[in-house]
Amino acid sequence: MQAELGRLAQAIGFFTRIILPDRIWRQAAPWRLDECARWFPVAGMLIGLVPALVFAIAAQWLAPLVAAGLAIASGVALTGALHED
What we know:
Largest sheet: none
Radius of gyration: 15 Å
Number of strands: 0
C-alpha cells in the first residue's frame, strides 16, 4: 500500500509543479512512470479538483468571469500551464 501511495504521489508530482520529498521517490522506484500510469486518472482528478474548488468558492462572492479567471490562474500555478492549450 505504501508503494502505491508513492506511485500516486509520483504521478501528481509528474503533472504538477509540486516538489516531492526524496523519501517518496525512493518508495516507488524512482523514474518508473510506467508503474505510475495506473494512477494518472486519479492524479488528474485530484489536480482538476483544485481549480474547481477555487471556482466554486470564488463564485459565491465574485462575478462568474472573475471566478473563472481565478480558477484558471490556480490551475496554471499548480501545473505550470501544462494543460492550458
